[in-house]
Automatic annotation (TrEMBL):
Subcellular location: Cell membrane; Membrane
Organism: Kribbella jiaozuonensis
Function field: NDH-1 shuttles electrons from NADH, via FMN and iron-sulfur (Fe-S) centers, to quinones in the respiratory chain. The immediate electron acceptor for the enzyme in this species is believed to be ubiquinone. Couples the redox reaction to proton translocation (for every two electrons transferred, four hydrogen ions are translocated across the cytoplasmic membrane), and thus conserves the redox energy in a proton gradient. This subunit may bind ubiquinone.
Ranges that cross the membrane: 20-45, 91-113, 133-154, 175-195, 207-226, 255-278, 298-318, 330-352, 364-383
Assembly: NDH-1 is composed of 14 different subunits. Subunits NuoA, H, J, K, L, M, N constitute the membrane sector of the complex.
Entry GO CC: plasma membrane
GO molecular-function term, one example from the UniProt record: quinone binding
Family: Belongs to the complex I subunit 1 family.
Lineage: Bacteria, Bacillati, Actinomycetota, Actinomycetes, Propionibacteriales
Entry keywords, A to Z: Cell membrane, Membrane, NAD, Oxidoreductase, Quinone, Translocase, Transmembrane, Transmembrane helix, Ubiquinone
PROSITE patterns found in the cross-reference section: COMPLEX1_ND1_1, COMPLEX1_ND1_2
Catalysed conversion reaction: a quinone + NADH + 5 H(+)(in) = a quinol + NAD(+) + 4 H(+)(out)
Protein name from the UniProt record: NADH-quinone oxidoreductase subunit H
Amino acid sequence: MAMRWSDEVSGGPVGFGQDSWGVMLLKVVLVFVILMVLTLFSIWAERRVVARMQQRIGPKVNGPFGLLQSLADGMKLILKEDLIPKTADKVVFVLAPAIVVVPAFAAWTVIPFGPTVKLPWSDGRTALQLTDMPVAVIFVLAMASVGIYGIVLGGWSSGSTYSLLGGLRSSAQMISYEVSMGLSLVAVFLYAGSMSTSQIVAAQDKLWYGLILAPSFVIYVISMVGETNRAPFDLPEAEGELVGGFHTEYSSAKFMLFFLAEYVNMGTVAALATTLFLGGWHAPLPINLIWDGANSDYWPVLWFFGKVLCFLFLFIWLRGTLPRLRYDQFMHFGWMRLMPLSLLWILVVATIRTINLNGGIDRQWLFVAIALCVVAVVVLLFVGEKKQSDKAAQQEAATYDGFPVPPMSAVATERRAR
C-alpha cells in the first residue's frame, strides 16, 4: 500500500520507524547479503556473457556453471599480500576504500523492494524497505557524491602520478554526469509530487514514468553508465593511458573494496532507475492484468530484481560491444549535449504540468509546439556539429602525414614562390 507522510513533529512516514529492533537488524542483514550475492552474480554474469559474445567459454570450473568463480577470486584477493607504497599517505590510503564502499551500501537503505507485507512469524506487518524519508532520492545522490571523495583521496594518497590523474579524471567525470542524472530526475519529481521513493513507486501503479517521461529515462540511462565509470565510459581506468587509474597502487582487500563498490553502485543506479521509471516493485503490464495477486505479498520482490537484472545486462552488453570513448569527446557530450537537453526537457514538462493543473488547453496545439521545439533543437545541434567538423577538417588539412605543420614565414613563402 502507499505510504503517507505523518503530520507529527518527527516528520517520518507512517509505517517506517515502527519496526522492532530485531526486524530492523534483520532488514539490514538481508540488504547486505542481497548486495553481496548480487555482486558475485554480476561478476559471474559479466564474464559469461562477454565470453559468449567473444565466442569464448568463460568461467566453468569452480561450482556448477562456474558460479563460485567470483567467490574464489574474492578469497584470493583477501589472502594476497597487502602492499602500501613508501610515498603514500598511509592513513588516507587505508581509509579511501572504506569511503567508497560504505556510501555504496548506504544508498540501498531507501530503495523499496516491495509493499507492506505480513511477517512470517507474527501478525505484525512491515514494509519491504529499510527506511524512507521525504528526500530519499536526494539521499541516494548524496551517497554517490560522497563516494567520489574516496576515489579522489585514493588517487591522491597513492603518491603516484597515474593514480592522481585517474582520480582527477574520475571526479570530473562523475560530477559532470551526476549533474545530468539529477536534472533527469526533476521531471519525475514534478509528476509524482514527492521525492520519497515509496511514494514515487505508489504513483506508478497504473503507468510507468519511463513511458510518459521517455527523454528523462534515456538521459538517466546514459548518465548512470558515466556515473559508474563503466565501459564505454571507463576512462578513469584507461589501461593504455593511466595503467589502472586511481587504484593502480592498491592490492589485496583494499583493491577488492574498490571492485566491490563499483558493482554495488551498478546495482544502486539500476535499482534507482527501476524505482523511478519502471514502476519499482509493480508487476509488468501483462502480468498485473491477468493476476490480481501479482502486487501483493512477497511476489513484488521478484519483479523488482527482474528489472534490476535487465539493467545489469545492459551494463554488460555495452561493455562487450562498444569501444572506449576519447575523454574530451565524453566530457563534451555530457556538458554540451546531455545537460542542455535535460534543461529543455524540464522546461517542457513543467509547462505541461502547469497547463494541466490550471485547466489545460487544446492538446493538439501543445504537441505541435513541442514538436517545433524539438525540431529547432535538433537543427541547432546539427549546425554546431557541422561547424566543428569543418574546423576539424581545416586543422587536418594543415598536417603532413598526420603531423601538424606550422605556417610558413613570409621569407619562406617568397623563396618557395621563386
